[in-house]
Amino acid sequence: MALKWGIVSAGRICHDFVTAVQTYPETDHKIVAVGARSLNNAQKFAKDHKIPKAYEGYEGIAKDKEVDIVYVGNLNPQHFEVSKLMLEHGKHVLCEKPFTMNEKQTRKLVELAHQKNLFLMEAIWSRCFPAYKEMKRLIDSGAIGEVLFASVHFGHALQHVERLKAIEMGGGAILDLGVYILQFQQYVFRGLRPIKIAVNGHLNDKKTDESAGVIITYPDGKMAVVSTSARISLPNEGIVVGTKGTIRMPDFWCPTQLITPEKTYQYELPKSPVAFFHKNSAGLAFEAEEARQCIKAGKIESAHMSHLESIELAQLMDLMRKEVGVVFPQDFE
Fold it and tell me: ∠ CA(250), CA(253), CA(254), 5° rounding?
């Protein structure tokens, strides 16, 4: 049976997600409904993507008996309430990163998914790319020896994007870009708990963070050095160094290449006749298929992006914001 999707919001990331999912046969994945704040936007999106149902707001999707799973792709501060609404109505949820605004909200969502026995995943799409799976295999097999160092510097000039600056929209480099650098080093040092974390950064004129850097120290001589900027472009390459060699991952958030001491791996993305807004967005299809496989197997979380890892990411982002001095209204709820 096809997994039937409801889409929350009609913005650019939702366009890319739907376009990517529609590269699969309808026997596996079917988009059946879209909801947006404005009915006009929902109807236009539905028409453009040949989606049968369009709703004003999100309750229609929550109550739609045909919808199995909801992709939540609206603004950061809305992720928690909308994901909660969907879980309460018996829907599985794939929610864009950052999952929520803080650790407290993330724990509540995870708890609700467990209570309802529903699949819930933070849409860290990077983890579902073949390059990540190959990197994990190489690390686990000891191909580069004992891994002692991970590094990534992720930046794009985005200060002109109002959503990324405004407090009320959950702005700042940490939540939008920082989640990627944190998940990368977390993936490399999976299962380890940091023993020391040092954070620095700069705020913009709207009092959200425009850049931040973190040194995360792990036991046994292991360390991650990661930084993010919403003001300038950075190298955007993930680096993992072991005692026997180095792995490089260009475009680490959506990689189609993995460079190892032995060889360079190249990966194809699904092909679509429809244009995407963002780089390598065809790879969003991988996380949709991961959700389908997990639901088919009766799982409520993915092994590639577990609930515990989402909680750990929220903890790290909370700490970074605190150290840099970014406070959201949700922190007082």
Answer: 80
